[in-house]
Amino acid sequence: MKSAIVHNTRFVKQKAKELGFQFCGISKAEFLAEEAPRLEAWLKSGRHGQMKYMENHFDKRLDPSKLVPGAKSVVSLLYNYYPQKDLAKERPEHYKLAKYAYGEDYHHVIKDKLKVFFEALNAEVGAIEGRLFVDSAPVMERQWAEKSGLGWVGKNTLLINKQAGSFFFLAELIIDLPLEPDGPIKDYCGTCTRCVDACPTDAITPYALDASKCISYLTIELKEEIPTEFKDQMENWAFGCDICQDVCPWNRFSSPHQESAFQPSTELKALFNNNWQDLTEEVFREVFRKSAVKRTKWSGLVRNLNFLKKS
């Protein structure tokens, strides 16, 4: 039994590497007892804003066996999205888009890889039960990644990897296959507060986020008009925000991704170059046809741009 667990663990990590995941860590699938009171307090404080879906499936967020009966292991994966060129820095006076949205929608790109991963695992070890996740279900992915030693949850509440920073998508396999778990690593934020100090809306306090003040929330999740209190605080971010990552010292170790699907299109570069003057609904549909930006819809993006114009 022990030798099978060792073999299967090695196979999982090798397959993850073959599929382009830069880091892979494994946790024992168990109830996240330490996270339960933190999540409850965060929700009760209302810091999730209008993201009411965060209040749903409380038990499933904490207990992987509620998602996969008989779950034995959580395989956490990191997929790099740090771009060759930071479009926001190239034209700092223009409207900005979070780096994760430069290319095709990561949900589809990574989910396809997870399907291949799961099929390969079944072929190697026999039929197993499991589910695949990439920011699409009640899974506390940062906490699982931290538990598996892929990094630590920093003061900006994002997972930070000591070798490569934080510009990663997180994904998980929750499976009923026993594997060798990895242990967590220590927190390396130290006394640094650059992310806290740099946040223009004061959304970050050390190790806590008031999402209702976060620029990413305001430009993506919020469906109403952006409150006027945030005028002159948005720093030209039209969709998402990278400020707390850009200032993080650990991101000096970020290296450009090798995923062709994440390369910005010619049409997107044109939008950056002309400062979004030509963003009609037709242009939106064409430029963001395969993009995560579709989530905010044309009307939402126009709302954001109009708010920035008035700021």
Please compute the radius of gyration using only Cα atoms.
Answer: 20 Å
Kindly report the average pLDDT value. Answer: 92
Give start-end ranges of low-pLDDT stretches.
none
| Sheet of most strands | 4 strands, antiparallel
β-strand number? 10
Order of helices and strands: HEHHEHEHEHEEEHEEHEHHHH
How much β-strand is present in the residues? 5-15%
The end-to-end span amounts to 63 Å
Task: State the helical fraction.
Answer: 25-40%
Total domain count:
1
Major sheet strand order:
1-2-7-4
SS-derived structural category: alpha+beta
Query: What is the general shape?
Result: globular
Count, helices: 12
Overview of the structural elements:
- There is one protein chain.
- It is globular, with a radius of gyration of 20 Å.
- The chain has a 4-stranded antiparallel β-sheet, with helices on both faces. Strands 3-10 form a two-stranded parallel ribbon. A two-stranded antiparallel ribbon has the order 5-6.
- The chain has one domain (1-311).
- β8 and β9 (208-209) form a beta hairpin.
- It has helices at 2-18, 35-44, 58-62, 87-90, 106-125, 141-147, 194-198, 215-221, 243-246, 266-273, 281-287, 297-310, and strands spanning 23-28, 73-80, 96-97, 130-133, 152-153, 159-160, 168-175, 204-205, 208-209, 237-239.
- It is 35% helix and 13% strand.
- By secondary structure, the protein is α+β, with helices and mostly antiparallel strands.
- The mean pLDDT is 92.
